[in-house]
Specification:
heterotrimer, A alpha/beta (258), B mainly beta (95), C alpha/beta (354), A: 258 residues, alpha/beta, Rossmann fold, two-stranded antiparallel sheet, 10 helices, B: 95 residues, mainly beta, two-stranded antiparallel ribbon
């Protein structure tokens, strides 16, 4: 009989979190929505706040977010997610409320709601997925489509002279006194995933302070409509999207206040 | 110092074959299969033993199909010593 | 307690007293007194959330979100603002969210006028938004009813999980009358099994949505909604009959116009013409059967509205061609007088049309 002082134990260090449901996601291979969904589920499970959280799903590819995330959910009309979230938060101020919106939803048809929700400083978390294109409707130009970037409605590239410029709405809303924490992240590389998760966690935690709106932009990809493989799309995003939409915190709370 | 030993399990039927995990793996232990799953996707498989359980592949996986394990060395905790005086044998009992 | 109050204020006061939890609105004449009154009174008295939104589009979507939690929520607007809310109303009806909507109508189309009108009957009753849906629609004729119908609306909204609309007009909203206010009720929230309030361990997550991508599911939802509307049609028809028992002619009118028509009927009776007034109170469900019952006993119907002739279509459907139905309407914010209504009636009778 041998007597050892050291043992090797195999422990699980990563598995799908409970609030990310088993339902298979309808997203295309390599789409960043899946990672963003998972991070939200992980944060909510780790904070143990499923019972106190209500999500608002947008119109767009992530309209079915409620099929994959296991908390109570309200599905909003196109662009109105932050108004719907406002309604919920105002009558249930003790709950955590977040909206999950794409670029067309949040920065085109819903720009008014986005800006006024942030300007009122609603104590909600807005998660903004920016992939520079309308995914669900098949690759039309978005408010965040880059100059010269091709889409089905800018087939020769976005001509800023006639089609206008990409809207950096995150910088715009960071300037509003109602926002408390505004950051831009991505989920295409392990380090970025870790950072994005921290940002989402802060967004939830800060809600308890009642200091204003938290806004987490996640620059993401759209392999199908960018017409690239998932890996290529992540490289393209690194090179082009992140050059225009640089990652990092845009507005951070005053530490003393927090 | 020896590398940490890890392992991954891939739910191949849920894998959509996006290849992002292959690129994220620092040890090059993941590759795409030659066959397809029920959905018709080439799926990710572990092809080498060098996995360190770093979780990078799972972090970037959009479909949460990868579970990661890591072997950790743990000092045994002695909870009793039984001594048989007549036969002069000592046995340690670990937790 | 009896008070002299403006219609808009009586309505706002009733919402405070019924224990409403939240109001989301946007100023528009002739109903801004509602938001103003609530801003002064509501939060400090009952804790009702009162929020001035950035637009009617935002208001109705705030209502959508808050109504999904099972709270008593409501909004109000006037015609152009109500047009902006139609998308949200369609979503609310589809997701079956109980709430109160108030339209203090003004003259249209377009930006129109701030004077009273009834041009939104079609929009309200026939569905101004997309898809097959119905709101329960109540049309008050007095400041008293402006107050009473608030209470009734919330009862019906929660009974059927359906939006309820109070369809009134700028004249009733602005005019002062005595009103007997009901007692202050406590703000309570019933625990409902479908609300989005946070998922406890022991139930599945609740989803408020109007999206059902599989056609079979969407059809099932539609069939369910239509079945609910049938039950509402059976249970919730409301109307008022004035001097109809011995009438040879009936004037049909809703809201404040019915009161003007009552005066016209009285003037007619002084002249020996036996006229009654039939006032639909619920515009959906419409009192088709009740109007039809009169068809065999009268010579004709004059429908009077402050529009180009909208409810008159439903009146015609009611009588199934058994009696002639004529129409007199004023538009653009003009309120008809009793004399002109009588004149119209006499003209139709003399002309052999009624």
């Amino acid at each position: 009989m041998s007597v050892e002082t050291l043992d090797r134990i195999e422990t699980k260090v990563f598995e799908k979190t409970k609030s990310l449901l088993d339902t298979e996601m309808h997203y295309c291979p390599g789409c960043g929505h899946g990672v963003a969904h998972r991070l939200i589920a992980e944060v909510i499970d780790e904070m143990n706040i499923v019972e106190d959280t209500i999500g608002v799903a947008p119109v767009g590819c992530s309209v079915f977010a409620y099929n994959y995330l296991g908390m109570d959910f309200s599905q909003a009309a196109h662009g109105r997610a932050s108004a719907v979230a406002t309604g919920i938060k105002r009558v249930l101020p003790e709950k955590y409320v977040f909206s999950y919106q794409g670029d067309g939803d949040l920065a085109a048809i819903g720009t008014g709601e986005t800006i006024h929700t942030c300007n009122r400083g609603e104590n909600i978390l807005i998660i903004f997925i920016n992939n520079g294109i309308y995914g669900m409707t098949g690759g039309q130009m978005a408010p965040t489509t880059l100059p010269n970037m091709k889409s089905t409605t800018s087939p020769f590239g976005r001509d800023t002279k006639s089609m206008g410029y990409p809207l950096k709405i995150t910088e715009l809303i960071a300037a509003l006194p109602g926002t408390y924490y505004v950051t831009r992240q991505s989920v295409h590389k392990p380090l970025n995933v870790r950072r994005a998760k921290k940002a989402i966690q802060k967004g939830f935690e800060y809600q308890k302070l009642n200091k204003g709106t938290c806004f987490v932009e996640i620059v993401s990809n759209c392999p199908s409509n960018w017409k690239m493989t998932p890996v290529e799309s992540n490289h393209w995003m690194d090179e082009h999207m992140l050059a225009f939409y640089p990652l990092g915190d845009i507005k951070v709370p005053n530490v003393k206040e927090a | 110092m020896a590398k940490v030993k890890g392992d991954i399990k891939i739910d191949i039927e849920k894998c959509k074959g996006c290849v992002i995990c292959v690129e994220a793996c620092p040890e090059d232990v993941i590759a795409m299969s030659n066959e397809v799953n029920q959905k018709g996707y080439l799926f990710a498989v572990k092809i080498e033993d060098g996995c360190t359980g770093c979780t990078n592949c799972a972090l970037v996986c959009p479909d949460a199909v990868i579970t990661v394990y890591r072997e950790v060395k743990q000092k045994k905790e002695q909870i009793a010593v039984i001594t048989n005086v007549t036969e002069n044998i000592t046995v340690s009992v670990d937790k | 307690m009896i008070k002299l109050m403006k219609g808009n204020e009586a309505l706002a006061e009733a919402a405070i007293r019924v224990g409403a939890d939240a109001y989301f609105g946007y100023p528009i004449t002739p109903q801004s007194e509602i938001l103003e009154y609530l801003s002064r009174e509501a939060e400090q008295r009952t804790g009702m959330v009162v929020l001035q939104a950035e637009s009617e589009v935002a208001s109705i979507n705030m209502v959508y979100g808050a109504a999904g939690t099972g709270k008593k929520v409501w909004t109000s607007s006037s015609s152009p603002g109500m047009s902006l809310m139609q998308e949200g109303i369609s979503y609310i009806a589809s997701a079956e969210l109980p709430c109160l909507l108030v339209n203090v109508q003004r003259g249209g189309p377009g930006l129109g006028t701030i004077q009273p009108a009834q041009g939104d009957y079609f929009q309200t009753v026939k569905g101004g938004g997309h898809g097959d849906y119905k709101m329960i629609v109540l049309a008050p004729a007095t400041v008293q009813e402006m107050s009473d119908f608030v209470k009734l609306s919330f009862e019906l909204a929660f009974k059927y999980r359906n939006p309820v609309m109070i369809l009134t007009d700028g004249a009733l909203g602005q005019m002062m009358e005595k009103v007997e206010l009901f007692e202050q009720q406590e703000r309570t929230t019933e625990k409902l099994d479908w609300t989005t309030v946070g998922k406890p361990e022991d139930r599945e997550h609740n989803i408020i949505t109007s999206l059902h991508i599989e056609p079979e599911k969407m059809e099932r939802i539609n069939i369910h909604l239509q079945a609910k509307y049938k039950i509402i049609e059976k249970n919730e028809v409301r109307y008022e009959e004035i001097m109809c028992d011995d009438a040879d002619y009936i004037i049909t009118a809703f809201g404040l116009v019915a009161r003007i028509c009552t005066k016209a009927a009285e003037l007619a009776r002084e002249k020996g013409i036996k006229v009654g007034v039939f006032r639909p109170i619920s515009l959906f469900p419409f009192p088709y059967e009740q109007i039809k019952l009169h068809a065999n006993n009268i010579k004709g119907i004059l429908d009077v509205e402050m529009n180009a002739g909208q409810m008159v279509e439903d009146v015609k459907l009611s009588v199934e061609g058994k009696v002639p139905v004529e129409f007199h309407g004023r538009m653009g914010g003009i309120v008809p007088t009793p004399d002109e209504i009588l004149e119209a009636l006499e003209k139709y009778i003399a002309g052999g049309k009624l």
